[in-house]
Amino acid sequence: MKLSVRQIVVAGVMSAIAIFLGATRLGFIPFVLGVAITIMHVPVIIGAVLEGPLVGTIIGALFGIFSLVWAFVAPTGPGDLYFQNPLISILPRLFIGLTAWASYAAFRRASVPWGLILAGTMLGLAGAFGYQIAQASVPLALLVGGIVLGLIAAFIHQTFQRETEVLALAVAAIVGTLTNTVLVLSAIGLLSQLRLIQPPVPWGVVLGVGMANGIPEIVVAVLITTSVVLAWKRVETGGGSQL
Amino acid sequence: MPEFELLRNITIGQYLPTGSIVHRLDPRVKLTLGVVLMAAVMATSSLTGVALAFIAMLAALGLARIPLRHALRGLRSAWAFFLMVAVLQLLLFPHHRAVAQGSAALCLWGPLLISTVSLRLLILLLTRLASLILLVSLLTFCTTITELAHGTEHLLSPLQRVGLPAHELALVLTLALRFLPLLAREMERIMKAQAARGADFGAHSWNFLQRTRRMFPLLIPLFLISLRRAEELIEAMEARCYMGGRGRTHPIQLRAQRADFVALGSVVIFAAFLLATNFW
């Protein structure tokens, strides 16, 4: 494990943004029922996409440590009670960078055969998932299925156009955000089931918060990640910022 | 225009230089003690243990010569949080099961039922919470951020043998903390620039979409400016042939004194005692 100067500096600066967004509360957007959606994991995704999984993990770890400290020093809501446990505030955050980078790399480098295999896998997963949803509600399944099919079609189209950058960034943001939301909430749910945290949260509440927060968080993360990285890469290649 | 003042929001911890014996402890020792005590307090599940921990925290604050009123301010601002925790605990606790298992019901009011077990648990939870808040505040009252970074580096350095880049990790931490005031200043500039163009940050709207849309013209420039600054820093470091890690010496050498060993020993014994109260 060797870190280059570039990796050290980008990790430091992106961690600074994550800490800054938390300290000034700019990273929280108040949402229904006093549950705020968060964008503090976006620096982790951007760092991972720019400099690889190690940098992503470091930023995730610092973000986690500071959210642990804040939960103690400046608690603001009932959620902070759960973030006082390092298994909830630190451990899940270590994986954001890893998954975001892996999905970015997979989609970015997709050659035509690889792209088709990835698209096939996604189609299979979406089919299985859609079937599950369809048993509960057919219109919802049609809606979700339509969105997923559109994404897959866009991916296949882009693979043949050799321009997978935008899609790879969007997928990285989606996967990174999902990693954060799903892992943190399942840690809360799991520790509640094991009676390791008090008061326990029932799975229904966990699922509800996940659904309500997950979707807006994904949308915001995708928008920020793609605009920042695309603008930055154009600056890097000397094409001039498009913002 | 208080909404543009971001600098004062980013104080992580609140160092209070009283020059006490706790302040003069080795940062490595302070960090270790903080982690050991935190783990012990979290793992304590007896009322005696938690009460002892709370008293010990107050004593430590006295030893650090931190004015009690100053230290308790953190707790006072968290009262709403305590209240919410209490309400949640009373709402979500499976009281009926507890009563069925033989705990006495204290209060029965409509669907609301409070049992002795849940009340005991609530007191335990709140005292533990208060002790932990005091512990973390104490650590930030008497350790500067630089000391914390040095301490982390030294504590991680044995792991360098197995390939963990301890020096680099400490540098990441120092950089992140150094960048915080810069980011705050940049953000103030961005906010003022956007406000000059007619952006409205003052009115608190509950419209979720509007609030979110308002974030984009702030966040995207912030990211890009930070990345540009990072690029400048990389260039400056490479121009000076920065080499991290092995063989690098430090301007500040940490040496443990006798007081450090005494503190380490007594706190470890105290933590073991806290854990032992679980089995009484």
Describe this structure in words.
The complex is a heterodimer of chains A (243) and B (280). By secondary structure, chain A is mainly α. Chain A has a single domain (5-110, 164-236), classed as Arp2/3 complex 21 kDa subunit ARPC3, CATH 1.10.1760.20. Helices cover 77% and strands 2% of the residues of chain A. Chain A is built from 10 helices and 2 strands, in the order H-E-E-H-H-H-H-H-H-H-H-H. A two-stranded antiparallel ribbon of chain A has the order 1-2. In chain A, strand 1 (28-30) and strand 2 form a beta hairpin. Chain A is globular. The model of chain A has no long low-confidence stretch (mean pLDDT 81). With 280 residues, chain B is mainly alpha-helical. Chain B folds into 2 domains: 10-159 and 254-279, no CATH class; 167-239, no CATH class. Chain B has helices at 27-43, 47-63, 68-77, 79-92, 95-100, 116-141, 145-156, 166-196, 208-239, 258-276; strands at 105-109, 112-115. A two-stranded antiparallel ribbon of chain B has the order 1-2. In chain B, strand 1 and strand 2 form a beta hairpin. The longest helix of chain B has 32 residues, at 208-239. The radius of gyration of chain B is 24 Å and the shape is globular. Chain B starts with 26 loop residues before the first helix and ends with a helix. The model of chain B has no long low-confidence stretch (mean pLDDT 81). The chains are: A mainly alpha (243), B mainly alpha (280). Chains A and B meet through helix 1, helix 2, helix 3 and helix 10 of A and helix 4, helix 6, helix 8 and helix 9 of B.
